[in-house]
Amino acid sequence: MNRRSVTDAAREAKVSRATVFNYLRLGLLVRYRRPGLDKRTFVDLDALLRLRASKEAGGADCAPVGSADALEAGRRGRPLAL
Fold first, then answer.
1. pLDDT at 63
2. pLDDT of 4-37, one tens digit each?
3. Which domain holds residue 56?
4. Domains contained in the chain, number
5. Rounded to the nearest 5 degrees, what angle is found at the Cα of 20, between the Cα atoms of 5 and 68?
6. Is this model's pTM higher than 0.70 or not?
7. Cα torsion 3, 7, 12, 15: sign
8. Of 22, 23, 54, 59, which is most buried, counting CB atoms within 10 Å of its CB?
9. Predicted local confidence at residue 82, as pLDDT
């Protein structure tokens, strides 16, 4: 898993930060956070690139990435262990 901050992931995937946050809100990506005072949001860059490629290929209706447990953990802001 290749976790990056939303800003870095958006830049590398050539999408806007708003697009990444929309994917998070829709459950298409999982949100990760570091424990403590760090409030940055991290996403899996590989999952974002796959999602972007799927959308470009005409896959307008994309299913959420991962299991229901992973999605729930993402909504809670699962701590990111580095």
1. 54
2. 999 999 999 999 999 999 999 999 999 999 888 8
3. 3-79
4. 1
5. 95
6. no
7. positive
8. 23
9. 45
Tokens of 10: 């958006």
Tokens read off for 6? 């939303």
Cβ atoms of 30 and 65 closer than 8 Å: yes
How many CB atoms are located within 10 Å of the residue 13 CB?
19
Looking at 18-61, which runs of residues are DSSP E strands?
Answer: 32-33, 42-44
Give the integer Cα–Cα distance in Å for 1 and 57. 23
Q: 78 pairs with which residues across the strands? A: 32
pLDDT, tens digit, 9 for 90 and up, residues 49-61: 999 998 888 765 5
